[in-house]
Amino acid sequence: MRVVVVLALAALAALIVALVSGSTLAAILVVMLALAGIVLLVRDWRAEPDAAEQASDSLGTIAELPANSVDVAVTALNMHHGNAERNVPYLKEIFTVLKPGAQVAVIDHQGKMGQDNAKMHRMMDSDAKKWLQEAGFEIAKESNILRQNADDHTLPIDDPRLARSTDQFMFIARKPAK
Predict the structure, then answer these.
(1) Which residues of 11-145 form beta strands (DSSP E)?
(2) Shared domain check, 70 and 16
(3) Is the domain of 114 the same as that of 48?
(4) pLDDT of 29-47, one tens digit each?
(5) 95-152 confidence digits (pLDDT tens)
(6) Are 8 and 41 in contact (CB under 8 A)?
(7) Looking at the structure, do residues 68 and 50 belong to the same domain, yes or no?
């Protein structure tokens, strides 16, 4: 599990370098490190079926972290499962634990206005942006690094024609520095 945490931290560092420098190589490194971490987690969970449950039990919840104690957070590909009633409180919890001036990256599958995005496992980037602001965050940067122009947002994210290459949005939001 420690190796996965190190890989996740390395992926986060590479993501920040990619955003700041616009480096394609850094973006590829992010994907490689993330995939390596996923492979290790899957391998561990297959070897020990209760490992996933034990890992989630040991990690706890956001609310258990002390206020103003976290430097950076990432939430990826999960907010499309909720709505404002679920996601605004979730983002407020993240806001509470972040130090003033700290940042959160929010990544999810881009949806299309007027369609049932929940059915497609997608969401509108405008909703994520609005929810971040409702939770108290300032939008620091909107990145196109995860954009996939071939995805027209009309297929579910697991449709084989997409080969899991969905168009994704990413916001970097900041907790105001008081």
Answers:
(1) 70-76, 98-109, 138-143
(2) no
(3) no
(4) 555 555 555 444 444 444 4
(5) 999 999 999 999 999 999 999 999 999 999 999 999 999 999 999 999 999 999 999 9
(6) no
(7) no
Q: Is 140 found in the same domain as 81? A: yes
Q: What's the Rg (C-alpha) of the chain?
A: 17
Say if strands 98-109 and 168-174 run parallel, antiparallel, or are unpaired. Answer: antiparallel
Nearest to 20 by CA among 128, 103, 117, 114: 103
Written as one letter, the residue type at 87 is N
Its pTM stands at 0.69
> First CA to last CA across the chain, in angstroms?
36
What's the domain count of the chain? Answer: 2
Rounded distance, CA 124 to CA 110, Å? Answer: 6
Residues 141 and 129 in one domain: yes
Query: Which letter does DSSP use for residue 118 in this model?
Result: H
Regarding whether 84 and 38 lie in a shared domain, the answer is no
Are residue 53 and residue 123 in the same domain, yes or no? no
Q: What is the mean pLDDT of the chain?
A: 80
Transcribe 23-57 into DSSP letters.
-HHHHHHHHHHHHHHHHHHHHHHHHSTTHHHHHHH
Task: Name the pLDDT band for 159 (thresholds 50, 70, 90).
Answer: very high
Full domain range(s) for residue 163: 64-178
